[in-house]
Amino acid sequence: MIHLLAKDVASAVKGELLGDGSVAVEGAAGLDEASEKELSFFHNTKYIDALQKTKARVVLIPQQTNGTTLPQGKTLIRVPNPQWAFAQVLGLIDQQRQHHPKGVHPKAHVEPSATIGAGTVVYPGCYIGHNARVGKDCLIYPNVVLREDTEVGDQVIIHAGAVLGADGYGFATLEGRHHKIPQIGRVVIENDVEIGANVTIDRATTGETRVGTGTKIDNLVHIAHNVHIGRDCLIVAQAGLAGSTKVGHRVTLGGQVGIVGHLTIGDGAVIAAQSGIMNDVEPGAVLFGSPARPHKQAMKLQAIYGRLEEIYDAFIQLKKKYL
Amino acid sequence: MIHLLAKDVASAVKGELLGDGSVAVEGAAGLDEASEKELSFFHNTKYIDALQKTKARVVLIPQQTNGTTLPQGKTLIRVPNPQWAFAQVLGLIDQQRQHHPKGVHPKAHVEPSATIGAGTVVYPGCYIGHNARVGKDCLIYPNVVLREDTEVGDQVIIHAGAVLGADGYGFATLEGRHHKIPQIGRVVIENDVEIGANVTIDRATTGETRVGTGTKIDNLVHIAHNVHIGRDCLIVAQAGLAGSTKVGHRVTLGGQVGIVGHLTIGDGAVIAAQSGIMNDVEPGAVLFGSPARPHKQAMKLQAIYGRLEEIYDAFIQLKKKYL
Amino acid sequence: MIHLLAKDVASAVKGELLGDGSVAVEGAAGLDEASEKELSFFHNTKYIDALQKTKARVVLIPQQTNGTTLPQGKTLIRVPNPQWAFAQVLGLIDQQRQHHPKGVHPKAHVEPSATIGAGTVVYPGCYIGHNARVGKDCLIYPNVVLREDTEVGDQVIIHAGAVLGADGYGFATLEGRHHKIPQIGRVVIENDVEIGANVTIDRATTGETRVGTGTKIDNLVHIAHNVHIGRDCLIVAQAGLAGSTKVGHRVTLGGQVGIVGHLTIGDGAVIAAQSGIMNDVEPGAVLFGSPARPHKQAMKLQAIYGRLEEIYDAFIQLKKKYL
Predict the structure, then answer these.
(1) What distance in Å separates the CA atoms of residue B188 and residue B225, rounded to the nearest whole number?
(2) Are the beta carbons of A18 and A35 closer than 8 angstroms?
(3) How does pLDDT run across A196-225, given as a tens digit for each residue?
(4) Taking the model in full, what pTM does it have?
(5) Contacts of C90 in chain A (CB under 8 A)
(6) Distance, CA of A222 to CA of A207 (rounded, Å)
(7) In whole angstroms, what separates CA A95 from the centre of its chain?
């Protein structure tokens, strides 16, 4: 049962309390969805109507609200960035809500040679293989598999069903038959990474498959052997990266993006959802399409593509008359 | 070992028995594949040859077979809808075939605060978290994860490896670093839903991610935080829905479809396989392509696209002569 | 700890030893990445610089190196095919590296009616259902699910989290509601198949879903009910095949390829990544695009598509002047 006092929230988010600080909330939600027992936030004047109508009894508001009529009978908390403060309140609620087991659950299987850092939680059904190393303060949700030699940093979150360190997809084809190339490398996950449910990250053929500090990976993403991903990237659900591709820092890959092997994706590149990348990508590029092109050009081409019927009809007439 | 008598089948499907009712079958299959010990069905005159040649010793046939020469020496069962009756026979066989464990298997892990309804089967390797509620007569196959607070209705089937209630993919980016927005909402699955193997359905940031009554979800589908899906939808394998999108009732999403966040998909819409949806979709719309267009237009545009070489050649000639 | 002597490597790969055979290596890597304690390989004169600079103390080299200055102070091993010999060395290292448990791990769940062949390893967290049969010398990694009646041949590798035998996605829709068609068929995996992490292969409605000898399936692939796949195919990550499609021998499906149901894909066909297949494919065809076209044509059309702005501008001028 969640129970937070408005004055404690104000103190936690370093905000200015306007109204009754003894009011309690039991949850949090957007202005439209919030019940009377919940806290909400207002950060943009286009939601002014929602602010007037919200049932939330506590609302985070920005420091500048010049002109905005503030709702009556509510406890308000002024903060520099209401969205950010709301995320902090979600954190307070989460601390009351979550009931993580302590340490390694007895229904997880951990090989004796594996090491697990202090403060790390390993849920039931996990498998942690020979020589695997997991850092401090990690959350390893149920049924995660970390194969042998996998190395996980500190404050890493791995969601249920993810598989790290399965063999890379490597075969030598002789006379039409595919012979397995043993995969003796490993997977390295740096600090502060989050890995979604049912993600697969394969071990390297030799050397490492590596995910850099602060990178966040959504569900059902596939990362092949020897891929290197830099710091602070976002890789959205169902994207797939083929073998040996190198991704820079602060790169965003949209949902269902596919990237072929042995490419280099420059720092800060943004690849829109469902795009297919077949060539190296410059730093800062914004691409879309399969095969991908610069986003602005891709949108123009799509617009003209939509007029192909008209173009085709005119072409038929012109051809008849003049060719 | 399956053992069904033709007369019992006829009675179960409320059909008219023609021939020897004491004949036993040990399975069922299509006309071409069926062995002598199996039951089959005939529902369309284009399969008349297959009907004559089938080895099946018992065949479901339609009530109207005017003109069709019925095969000799077989037991036939007349029914209004042979396909439907065949599905019922598969159900009879399935009852003899399946050996579900009873109740919650001791190798599943269920938190003490979770509740599980009567008649529900939980297979080994499942994890059912704090405060999760599962209704009556559900089948929860091996290694399914239901994170804390997840609510599952009655007669729900969840296939192996599915993960419900993992954290939504939500981050606040400040100065290039992605800070986790705690995900305190939950997942609600209504009655009669089926969820495929290794599907992921994320918990809401606040509030609910919800799947409506009767909706059927295929394998490896991704449903992000705060998505709402209506009743009786079909969501085919590897489709992905980004955060906060609302899907109406009786919507069909083809395989590998991608839908961006915060959209509304109208009732009865049909999105063809691999399409990408970047805008709201009207009720009843039939769309194809990435980005998607009305199906008929998309097919026309594809046809013209296939002639671009011809158009380009003429364009070069016209340009030389006249521009 | 890996420990291999150069002379033992030379003997295992049937190579000619040049230099000190008593040198030991502790691993293997490419020329650029290898440390002093590792073995590497040189197979192409374009890597001649890397060969001169490599730190690897043992290098596999081809039999013909006419003109190439060989590096001093290293142990070299002459072999007919250095890449192939390197794969063999990885195998030697793998034998020292891997610590498979023996037989069926007690934390796996195997139904009493299931049978498991000699030399097969079943890791913790696996579920092997009623009447399932697994052949000899298989590796079943953690948390794999083989539902009832599934049959797996010899020397099959199934990576963590894969689900074989979940119900096919089959429904009979009556008055807008989807009624489950019971799925009483099974999955058959022939010998020497490898199946990636979190793959899903559904059981047949009736009869079999079948994967042929020597076929290699990458992570997160979806294979629907009643699909038949031939021998020695490569199916790359996140590809999906809809129900009842028949795939020939030695077919390659690229990453994220989608194939609709009830099609026939001819022997030796190659489908490029992200393609969508909506029609039967001829043997030996090489296709690309969604919908897919012959690869050469698809690339030409994409090139012209990139010039649509130019074409459109000329079309507007021509239309104004002449139509």
Answers:
(1) 11
(2) no
(3) 999 999 999 999 999 999 999 999 999 999
(4) 0.97
(5) 181-184, 205-206
(6) 19
(7) 21
